[in-house]
Structure formats: structure tokens, C-alpha cells
Amino acid sequence: MDSYLPQTPYSDPGHLNVTGLPSGPGELALLVRDLIIHRLEGPRFGYIVPEERLHEDAESRYVTEILRILRERRDAPLTEARAPHERFVGTCRDFSLLLCSLLRATGTPARIRGGFATYFVAGFHEDHWVTEYRLPDGSWRLVDPQVTHPSYDIPFDPLDVPRDRFLLAADAWRACRDGAADPATFGFWSVAGLRGLWLVRARLLQDLAALNGVEPLPWDGWGPRQVMDDADLTADDLALMDAVAAGEVPDGMTSAPDTVTSYTVYSGPRQVTLRRSSPPA
Fold first, then answer.
1. Number of neighbours of residue 168 by Cβ within 10 angstroms
2. How many CB atoms lie within 10 A of CB 85?
3. Which of 114, 133, 187, 214 could form a disulfide with 209 if both were Cys (CB 3.0 to 4.6 A apart)?
């Protein structure tokens, strides 16, 4: 069985009936686009996101929680587009995870990937998550369900994102270390302090975890020491991440631990124990 076809505890949609869902990746991406609104997209849709939804939805790390919130706001088939006030208020990670879940549920191997997009701000690598799914020939394709909305002026097909427009975290790390890219151009454009090689390192660790069945929230962190500034990176840190980016992953680094620190901006850092199995049937 393909290792990216079974659901993880994070992507598992629970008792969702997928009979009426499309199975094509493009159709599913458009479906997901109509179920979620990014928490910064309010002005794009002429909608003021209620403050409490920024708090309530932000820590919904499991697809079962996303689906529960969607049902509470409108009890209708997922194939019916939601008005902005009926949608889940999420981030790029939530678009990507829900699409990944539905792809797996309808028979397409998929995974979420952490990295950096060059198509939001010219000359900048924006921290971002997308979905990657396996084609029948065994190759992988990137799709960005968030930017399938026509209001995004994307100069390529978001259902087939070019690899040079979205750099996977390992590629981003190598580009920074080789001098091909400036680490100061990687991070969050709107937050000056959240950029640099330390953040590329964080995404590299998160992407590694996602590839091994633990799809994290973008602000999850773990490990014996948290690195949140380039000055904190030691020679050992650099050497270890060089190895990880090259595919030489030491034993014990393929996943996140049982407990992570959630550095959410709305409620402050807190310890979270991760679900290690799918919800009860």
C-alpha cells in the first residue's frame, strides 16, 4: 500500500461520507477553496472575520475539528460552497491538510509540504504550505488550493505549481546555505522579525514531520532548545540541518515528539499533547 494513501490522525476525516465527492485533484482543490477562508483574507472577500473565530479556529489541528466547525456553521454537503461567514477560518496549512485528507479519502496518495512561495511578494520567499499528490506515473505534483480563487493574480496554474515558484523547505535550506538565496528573504513579509535561516530550519523540521505522519500547525515547535534567531544557530545546528536537507536524517528525527509547543499569537505559547491515533470509529 502507498505510504501516503492511508490517513494520519491529523488528516483522518472520521465518518465523512465521500460518495458524492469528486475524485479529481483539481475539482477537490476548488471544493476546498470554497470551504475555508484564510484568516487574513477578510478584505479580499469583503468580510470582517469575527475576532473569536481567529481564536477558536486557529488551533484546530485535526481535519475532524475542521469538519465539525464547518457543520456547525452550515450543515450541508461539502460540495456546496459556503459564504465567507460559513467557512472555517484557517491558514494555508488548513487548505493543504483538508485537500490532502480528501485526496486520500478518494484514492489519491497525498501529503502536505512546508516551504516558501515566491508568488505572493516579488523578491520574497513567503512561508507557506501546499499539497503534493502522486500522479499515476509515480511522480509528484504540487497544488496550492488557497490561490485557486480568481482574486489571486498567480502567473501559473495553481493546480500544477512549478518547483521554482514554491521551494520545499529542504531546497530553501540548501539555497540559503549555498549562497544562492538570502535567508533574510525567507519568512513572513508582514512580520519583520519572522524571517531568516532559523525559520527555514523550523520549516525543514516541520516538513520532515509532515512526511512522516505528523502534520503540524505552522507555529508548532519542539526539541531540546528552541532556535528563534539566526544568532542562536550553532555549528552543530547547521551541520545537522545540512544533513537533513540532503536526505540524511538521523534516527529519532523523522517525527515530532508526543508534546509540542504551540507558539500561537492569539493565546501565547502553550504545551500541546498530540493525538497519536485516529479518532474512535
1. 20
2. 15
3. 214
Strands (E), the chain: 36-38, 88-90, 110-117, 125-134, 140-143, 166-168, 186-187, 220-221, 259-262, 270-273
Q: d(Cα 53, Cα 162) in Å, to the nearest integer?
A: 33
Under a CB-based contact definition with an 8 Å cutoff, are residues 156 and 139 in contact? no
Question: Is 256:220 a contact under the CB 8 Å cutoff?
Answer: yes
Q: Report in angstroms the alpha-carbon separations of 255 from 13, 92, 147, 186, 214.
A: 21, 21, 29, 23, 6
Statement: residue 156 has pLDDT above 60:
yes
Classify burial at 170, counting beta carbons within 10 Å of its beta carbon; exposed 0-12, middle 13-18, buried 19 or more: buried
Alpha carbons within 13 angstroms on the beta-carbon side of residue 182 total 4
Q: For residue 16, what is its C-alpha cell?
A: 465523512
Please indicate whether residue 58 or residue 170 has the higher confidence score (pLDDT).
170
Altogether, the residues listed in the chain come to a count of 281
Domain boundaries of the chain, sorted by first residue: 25-273
pLDDT digits 0-9 by tens, 207-255? 999 999 999 999 999 877 788 899 999 999 999 999 999 999 988 787 7
